Amino acid sequence: MSEKKTTGSLRRLALLIAMFLPGAFCEELAAANVLQVGYASAKPGDDRVHMTITATNDEPIHGYSLALAYPSGVLQMTDIGICGTHLVELEPEFVAPRIDNELGIAHLAVIIEFEAPTGENYLEPLSPQDSPRIVARLSFRVLPGAAGGHYPVRLVDGIGAPAVYNRFSNAGRSIRPELRNGTFFVKGENVLALDRRRAFCGATPQMVIRALASHPDPLDGFSIGISFDCETLELDPDDALLGMNVIASLGNQVELFQTDIDTLPGPMDCRSRTGVIFDRVPPFLGQNLLPSTDSPPTQELMRYTFRLKSNAIDCADTEKLDLLLEELEQPGSLNTTFIVGSSSITPVREHGKIYFCTGTLRGRVVDALTGAGLGGVRVVTIPEGINATSSANGNFVLVDLPPGDYSLEYEKNGYYSGGLLDVPVSCGNENNAEETGLYALPPSCPPPEGSFRRGFINSDARSDLSDAISIFNYLFRGFAPPECTAAADVNADNRLDISDGIFMLNFLFGNGPPPYSPYEECGTDPDSTLGCVRSYACEQ
Questions:
Q1: Does 215 share its domain with 248?
Q2: CATH number of the CATH domain containing 367
Q3: Residue 441: pLDDT above 90?
């Protein structure tokens, strides 16, 4: 081996050691550097949902490594890499992703240049006024049936075997950045929301609070537990009534309806418990409440009439009274659940509120790299869905908000969605959210020549019954051939014939095996002799 090759190999090895085992042979320096995971949101079953990791560095970076943990029972990672980031233009020489969906961990190692780590090809330092750069893009699939809510996506040092650390590397020297975790919000398919109602002290003695539901499956029953402060609120069991949608759909067919009030220790002294079953005794007629999937939810399950104890409320100091859909961790407690068949499903719980004044929330959205204001950004409160659109200079205002903490989501075509958590709003004030920068979508990496997804046959970029019909239409009705013939060869026998259509039908409806690789994710089949330069499904 030549001296040059030996030196290059040793340099590669030293740089890899510096990245993956930062405490082994190099000095570890603390620096004013940051790695931050972003924000994403999606519904159960959604696929290819992107989340970014950004970096701030105050000295040249020749490589870096990332180590992430995510809830594998909710999210499955389908990709981690530099495509669609600001690293693409540097054309790194080494990019090594690794995903373990069983453990819920992922790693990424990037070396920009092997031979000359002190040369010209590196990530340049940022000045304090510069915005961070996107250094990794994650792609997730939300598992069907995943419970709604906020889930952390964390940067964690020392996970995996061998252990991987979150580090920057400068000429073989390891730099430990500050780590900031991200949030993935799963928009629950099953949601129960309590009303938010404004009251006027001395003028509103009672308030009707509705329990509103959204659910994709028919309900066979439900239970609701609401905690409230009974020093200021009063609720009689007779004031808990079935909602209008339940009465309109089922009338007198409800076979169990029971509600009572518990007195509990703690700051929320009282709890209303309600249990409803539509069909519990023979003859079983199968009555249930039909699905409702409106967002925000609109199907009315219950009506509660709360009376305000006006002599117990100081209107000058009271901003709100909370109504909490709580889950009690104790045996025999009646919690907030939907009953589907013989299963109990815990919905996303959107708590209620009786409030006595409102506040205003102002903020500004800018382009993260240029700092220019972004107009046309839809700003949405999560999960309430209150929204506004930013003006040309990026400013937005949300008015008449009940007091409390809000999460914000920002949406604009051509930009990564961003989010901001726990923004406080108090009554009578001009509350301000911190300025938020959105990142324009960098060019993504095109799929390689010859890549396709088997079973993704027509142009809708998914695999379903219409793909089987496309095969039969081509073979027997004179329709145009599939854009990618290899994608239609679902049984991978290098022929497109009736057996491929039957294979698809067995897969979809007869518990047959899925199409052969590449399936779901884009890829190539070196054994295929059928044509496919690049399929439509890989261009999405």
A1: yes
A2: 2.60.40.1120
A3: no
Same domain, 182 and 205: no
Tens digits of per-residue pLDDT, 57-84?
999 999 999 999 999 999 999 889 998 8
Q: Which of 482, 499, 494, 484 is nearest to 453 (CA)?
A: 484
| Same structural domain, 26 and 160 | yes
**Tens digit of pLDDT for each residue in 151-202?**
999 999 999 988 999 999 988 889 999 999 999 988 878 899 999 999 887 7
Mean pLDDT of 200-216: 89
Residues 239-267: tens digit of each pLDDT: 899 999 999 998 878 888 888 887 765 55
Same structural domain, 197 and 346: yes
Residue 54: CB atoms within 10 A of its CB come to: 23
Q: Is the peptide bond before 383 cis (omega within 30 degrees of 0)?
A: yes
Query: In this predicted model, what pLDDT tens digit does every residue of 276-320 receive, in sequence order?
Result: 998 876 555 678 899 998 878 999 999 999 998 877 777 767 888
Q: Same domain, yes or no, for 404 and 526?
A: no
Token pair for 316 = 């000058």
- Residue in this structure with the two tokens 């909490």, named with its chain if needed: 324
* Domain end call among 355, 390, 409: 355
Q: Are 350 and 234 within one domain?
A: yes
| Distance from C-alpha of 158 to C-alpha of 166, rounded to nearest angstrom | 8
Q: Are strands 105-111 and 94-100 parallel, antiparallel or unpaired?
A: antiparallel
Range of the domain at 409: 359-438
**Number of domains the chain is built from:** 4
**Residue 20, φ and ψ in degrees, nearest 5:** -90, -30
Do the beta carbons of residue 225 and residue 328 sit within 8 Å?
A: yes
Q: Do 145 and 112 share a structural domain?
A: yes
Would you put residue 428 in left (φ > 0), alpha (ψ -120 to 50) or beta? Answer: left
Residue 443 within a domain: no
Rounded Cα distance between 109 and 9, Å, is 17
Question: Among 306, 325, 355, which residue terminates a domain?
Answer: 355
Q: Which residues, other chains included, contact 9 with Cβ-Cβ below 8 Å and sequence gap of 6+?
A: 1
Q: What is the pTM of this model?
A: 0.69
Rounded to whole angstroms, the Cα distance separating 481 from 497 reads 12
Nearest to 378 by CA among 327, 350, 418: 418
Same domain? 320 vs 390:
no
Q: What's the pLDDT tens digit per position in 331-361?
A: 555 678 899 887 888 888 899 999 988 999 9
Q: Would you say 174 and 27 are in contact if contact means Cβ atoms under 8 Å apart?
A: yes
